[in-house]
Write a structure and sequence with these properties.
alpha+beta, Outer membrane efflux proteins (OEP), about 60% helix, about 10% strand, elongated
Length: about 475
């Protein structure tokens, strides 16, 4: 029985039993994506589905050099250090203690415990060298709760890093697509400028001979000026997109100034991936790193309640001191006696004017906040998936409509050119038809960009191939 009583504190120590039992909050989830099926596939490197090696290289560069990912790694290192510190608090601390003094005992005598001890009546060295052990019995799981909370913080930081990687990958893809769209728009506008200049020159000739009035000339001049004014703005947007992409992938200031972004596939040649999601609604909780991160923060707040509750109970500490003493010797390390002590101390709260109660209330309020944030992250995730699916459908329809409109404009230009060759149309008619084609191409580029962006949003909304560990450690 004495052995059981002696071992009981050690058995209880390290158990966070004052923390509430964690149970994942229940959330009502849909069974399907509103009639849209799911196709199982590996989306971990989803950007490769667009078929552009330059994009693949930019994604690889960003994953290695992005500042956002570097900051997430730093946060993970901080969380790991905090966990190591909290875990070490559950273990004894051993330190070396030493002291040395120079003096003498009055009359060469020391009286202690009813006895008198005789020492040389002269000035001497008094020294001690030994070791000290301190250990707090964690009977109520205070340190264990803090350690478990820090452990959940490490997992949360890992998931936050995964979320940063996914966000950076999506940002790189969308910026690259915007850059390719702007490249195409700049080329179209330059063609439009040449077309409008030619139209204005022909109208000017007709006006000079009195074939057209001033109103028609003014109309042609305004169209030419509008196209000329649009080009610098479009070039500025392209330059800004290129700079933003360089920053996102983590390029140095020298590279930012001296090295541009390589170009790969034209925006019309980029592959548009399958718009169906790769996960079922019931799987989304395990496939979003931000949701997994919020759940770990919830688990940490759950253990923080146990840490706060432990303040209601006494704290018991053990301390041991062992070493060697010397008296009246020249060398401290030539001991004349050995000594050791073993002590225990207990401190129990009696009256703290509500400090502990307030701490528990604060921990519970923080847990309730984390529950709300966790549920909010789930709602946000399903909203983003829904929006991405709807955007996929509308963008696909818009892209198809613009392709048809562009083909119709191309056919009209072809027919007008044939009429010109037969003498039934003028050069201005051909140029106007050509201008219509250019406007249709601008709309087509915009529609294709929206479709590509919608596909990126869907990959991001479904977690990009990420799969989190469940609270029991399984995947």
């Amino acid at each position: 029985m004495r052995k059981v009583i002696f071992l009981l504190p050690l058995l209880l120590s390290g158990c966070a039993w004052l923390a509430p039992h964690y149970k994942r909050p229940e959330v009502s989830l849909p069974k399907t994506w509103d009639g849209v099926g799911a196709v199982a596939r590996d989306d971990r490197e989803w950007w490769q589905r667009y078929g552009d090696p330059v994009l693949d290289q930019l994604e690889s560069e960003a994953q290695q050099r992005s500042d956002d990912i570097a900051l997430a790694k730093t946060s993970l290192s901080q969380a790991q250090a905090q966990y190591s510190y909290a875990f070490a608090n559950q273990l004894p601390s051993i330190s070396v203690a030493g002291s040395d003094a120079y003096g003498k005992f009055a009359d060469g005598k020391v009286r202690a415990m009813g006895q008198s001890f005789q020492f040389p009546n002269k000035t001497s060295n008094f020294g001690f060298v030994g070791g000290m052990l301190n250990y707090e019995l964690d009977l109520w799981g205070k340190n264990a709760s803090l350690s478990q909370a820090a452990k959940a913080g490490v997992k949360g930081a890992v998931y936050a890093q995964d979320a940063a990687r996914l966000s950076v990958a999506a940002g790189v893809a969308k910026l690259y697509f915007s850059l390719r769209a702007l490249d195409r728009n700049v080329a179209i506008l330059k063609d439009s400028i040449r077309t409008q200049d030619e139209i204005l020159a022909l109208v000017q000739n007709q006006y000079d001979v009195g074939a057209v009035d001033a109103l028609l000339l003014q109309d042609a001049t305004e169209r030419r000026d509008t196209v000329h004014a649009a080009l610098p703005d479009m070039e500025d947007q392209r330059n800004n997109a290129e700079s933003a992409l360089s920053v996102l992938v983590g390029r140095s200031p020298q590279e930012l100034i001296q090295t541009g972004i390589a170009r790969g596939q034209e925006i019309d040649n980029l592959k548009v991936p399958d718009p169906t999601p790769s996960v079922l609604p019931s799987e989304l909780l395990e496939r979003r790193p931000d949701i997994a991160m919020h759940e770990q923060m919830l688990i940490a707040s759950n253990f923080n309640i146990g840490y706060a509750r432990a303040a209601y109970f006494p704290s018991i500490s053990l301390a041991s001191l062992a070493g060697v003493n010397n008296i009246d010797i020249d060398n401290l390390y030539r001991a004349t006696s050995r000594s050791w002590t073993l002590g225990a101390a207990m401190a129990a709260p009696v009256l703290d004017f509500g400090r502990t109660q307030s701490g528990v209330k604060l921990a519970k309020a923080n847990k309730n906040q984390q529950v709300t944030l966790y549920q909010q992250s789930i709602r946000t995730a399903f909203k983003e998936v829904r929006d991405a699916l709807l955007a996929q459908n509308t963008a696909s329809e818009r892209d198809a409509d613009n392709i048809a409109r562009d083909e119709a404009a191309q056919q009209k230009l072809h027919l007008t050119t044939l009429r010109l060759n037969q003498g039934y149309a003028s050069q201005i008619d051909v140029l106007v038809a050509q201008s219509t084609v250019q406007l249709a191409e601008l709309s087509r580029v915009k529609a294709r960009l929206q479709r590509l962006d919608a596909s990126v949003d869907l990959y991001k909304a479904t977690g990009g191939g990420f799969k989190a560990s469940t609270p029991d450690g399984k995947k």
